[in-house]
Amino acid sequence: MKIKTKQNHFFGALKARTEAKGGITLEDDFTGETKFHYKDFGSIDWYRELAVDQRKRAREKEKAENSPNIVNYVRSLADAASGWIIVTVIGLLAGFAAGVIDIATKWLSDLKSGYCRGHLYLNQEQCCWSDNLHGIDEDNCTAWRDYGNPNSYGGHVLLFIMYCLMGTLFATIAVILVKMIAPYACGSGIPEVKTILSGFIMKGYLGFGTLLVKTLTMPLAVSAGLMLGKEGPLVHVACCCGHAVSQFFPKYRNNQAKLREMLSASAAAGVSVAFGAPIGGVLFSLEEVSYYFPLKTLWRSFFCALIAAFSLRAMNPFGNQHLVLFYVEYDKPYHLFELFPFIILGILGGLYGILFIHMNLSWCRFRKRSLLGQHPLLEVVILALGTSILAYPNPYTRIQSGHLIRLLFKECKRYDDNPLCDYDYSKNATTVFSDGITQASWQLILALIVKSALTVITFGIKVPAGLFIPSMVTGAITGRLIGIMTQKIIEAFPSSPIWEGVCADPTSCIEPGLYSMVGAAAALGGVTRMTVSLVVIMFEVTGGLQYIVPFMVATMASKWIGDAFGKDGIYDGHITLNEYPYLDVKIDMQQQKVRSIANNWTLTSIPFQGSTTEKLCTMLADHPYSGFPIVTTQGRLVAFITREDLHEGIAAGRMLISDDPNDEFIDQTVLFTMSTPLVSAGRVPIRLNNVIDYSPVTISEQTPIALVLEMFRKLGCRQVFVIRQGELVGLITKKDLLQFIYETRNNDQTSYSQFK
């Protein structure tokens, strides 16, 4: 019989989709293992995706056992090796991308002060290396030409103008590329990657365009002198590489849960190339960003991070055989009494994290409401110009942040040209602290104020902007100042019983560079709330195991102080600010019950008996829901079927009757049982028992919200059904739960409507 126009239109779409696949035999081949098409800004069904993968592996294993031949063996071996192939390629690409970014950043940064005559593509170090046969001597380098003579007034002014113009130009190019080509290339990317790994769909965020633009604009943004880093965005770049490579393998392209295993490994590779810390990268992925992290993903992440580190090491972007610019090696041990200033650094790092998170989130809210949010290009240009003007007079704000960290981490030795190591070792000196150290200390204090303030308003602009390095710079400056202060206290009280037996003079037992490293770890921990992964990253960067205890002490103190005033780190804060549907493990809902979410639900369900294709087509055309419960006449829940499987099932059943799309629509019975009834009147019923979920997750109205939260997190549920005395009365989706949590926290009606 004929049905309504909207049903004919709906069935025509089903017919076209089925014909594109060459037809489906309902009884044999239709098992619901086709790719599930999720909507943008939606959540994946972890349970369904993992179940599909398990059924596929079980069927392939059975096929190999029933037909043992070389073809099935090779196919099984290729399927098992596909994950390792992907992580290998991801590691190679991540290392290559990081090397290119490091080389380009160094070249663009040097281009702000001068250029290499005859070889414009060389940075200052490479240019001077080719100009001197016996090594690098930048002071006597004739090949490198500054824009002006720094010893003359006119030359100094010219250098200042070129520094500001070049920095503003780099930032302008970066924001234009981001705005016009890939808007998702802005920011750090870690909050979004964290949300995607939790099961959220953001189409295009890990696309090739985003990868290309972020790789090109990251060196521009860092070289512009903005208070941002490239380490966080490298995680985003690595995940883009992982997404691109996974698209060549149907096992991961068609399964969102399996794809996220590769993205977790990619995040580990991103941190590995950012800090030269493969083990720290794996722990970062496990501790900070990953939502689903089985044991095999741990091993693959480790292997991916290792390959990425080897790839970057082969490129040798810094020319020092190390993976990071600020790699240091210390051999001086610390003393027990130094644990007290290390704890002080941890407390200061925690307080800084609290203050920074509050001020940055407040500024980002203001940006959204003001003209800055409507004109991101103007904001970046003004910020880049203002940053250049403020940074140029101070040598510690003018140089690139990575070089500053290396300078602060550096161990002081005699006859060192570092102003921070300008100690007076002469016997007639009344103090070991010369005027050079005093002047450098005041410059560091000014740099600390300027960099901290600019980082607050820079993080969140529409260019690639990481937070790792700016936070480490703030902590490193504070640590260096605390180290110098500790030296002065020892000099003022040399006979104190605390250090009398171990300190012959302030410089022999106190190394300010170590305090700088501990301060960097404390500040980064206070901002991000990282713990174990941060400690491992820091000792991998420093190359010494003997400083694990100072790092642990400072990190734990920073974590405790930060959690005392708020458990959310900066990335969790931006997830909440952007209203991403991420279920945080730190949410406390002990006293709330399911009945608090809603008292009256309106459900669209499918009757367990009496369903026909005409009724189901009408229901699908009238309701946009992603799935439907199947209930008995008494309202008891029997099963659940997704919209996608119902689509495919009806189309497959229609193909059993006729291959001609012009045939009249024939109403067919739809069965959800295991039994096969007799075919009557020449019509074949559609049996969908092999694609429905007979064990949907159910809860009662008295179930605590805390338990429901754990069910969503650990079981990967997309929805749970609410039962009252055996009868289905409602359902709760992940976004319903997030909406309730958000309203409870903020006591308002602001919702996640943009993702519904």
TrEMBL record:
Query: What is this protein's record name?
Result: Chloride channel protein
GO molecular-function terms, A-Z:
voltage-gated chloride channel activity
Q: Which CDD domains match?
A: CBS_pair_voltage-gated_CLC_euk_bac, ClC_3_like
Would you indicate the residue range of the signal peptide? none
Q: Where in the cell is it found?
A: Endosome membrane; Membrane
The record lists the membrane-crossing segments as: 84-104, 157-178, 204-228, 262-286, 298-319, 339-359, 371-392
**Family membership:** Belongs to the chloride channel (TC 2.A.49) family.
InterPro entries named in the record: CBS_dom, CBS_dom_sf, Cl-channel_core, ClC
